[in-house]
Amino acid sequence: MTTFSSHLYDMCYPPGIEHHWWTLARNSLLANILSKESGNASAFLEVGCGKGLVVKSLNDSGFNVHGVELADVEPVEGAQELVDSGIDAIEWPIERRAQITGLLLLDVIEHLPEPEAFLKKLQASFPSLNVIIITVPTCQEIWSNYDSFCGHYRRYSLEILEKLAAELNWTTKSAGYFFRFPYLPMRLMSLLGVDRNTKINAPTKVMRPLHRLVSLACQIEEALLPRRMRGSSAYAIYYPNRSRQQ
Questions:
Q1: Percentage of the chain exceeding pLDDT 90
Q2: Is the Cβ–Cβ distance between 186 and 142 less than 8 Å?
Q3: Long-range residue pairs from 182-186, CB within 8 A, at least 24 positions apart, any chain
Q4: At 138, is the secondary structure helix, strand, or coil?
Q5: What confidence score (pLDDT) does residue 5 get?
Q6: What pLDDT does residue 13 have?
Q7: How far is the C-alpha of 102 from the C-alpha of 99, rounded, in Å?
Q8: Residue 1: which residues within 8 A CB-CB, separation 6 or more?
């Protein structure tokens, strides 16, 4: 089982989580990536979209993004028409799959013991696919109780992401770490044997400005710091069966 239970969804995606600094910063990163990878005819599908937080955010930013979620969950307000829950992506109607030019797998493959077979099947199921965007938690040295709680099999590295591309015969257009600021306290907690809180709390209205500020700091470090400087997450942009584009 790779799907979250209702209990896990409630703990990890409480109402108001869209205002959390982590959510805000990652959505900003994804919007920047899609702005470079999408054209007028581009259509993206987020596989394993959960309640559709990212789907809604990217659509609000003007991108054509839908989502599918294997678990039978209720999408967030505003994403009901954009998310199909309780369905496998490869079982989505072929006429809809044929329209998809890009896939998003956002913190998904770490839940799979061997993601290669899953990714090959996905690629084969979307005939118009030309880009795949993946995000993952990274750096095994900051593995914690939170990873075990969420059912992660590993934390990734850029080297593992590059190896994955080679095994799938994909071209890596770009890859890099992000969330470098959070890496430092997470590393310290790991060294001291301090457990993380497994329940994520949405910020109160009073705390939302602070979360926006932290998100902005993460966006600035993403723009200024080297892509190979370690962070607690990473992204990779892959072109399946295509020559490297400059």
A1: 86
A2: yes
A3: 182/22, 182/218, 182/231, 182/232, 183/139, 183/142, 183/230, 183/231, 183/232, 186/142, 186/144, 186/232
A4: strand
A5: 60
A6: 80
A7: 9
A8: none
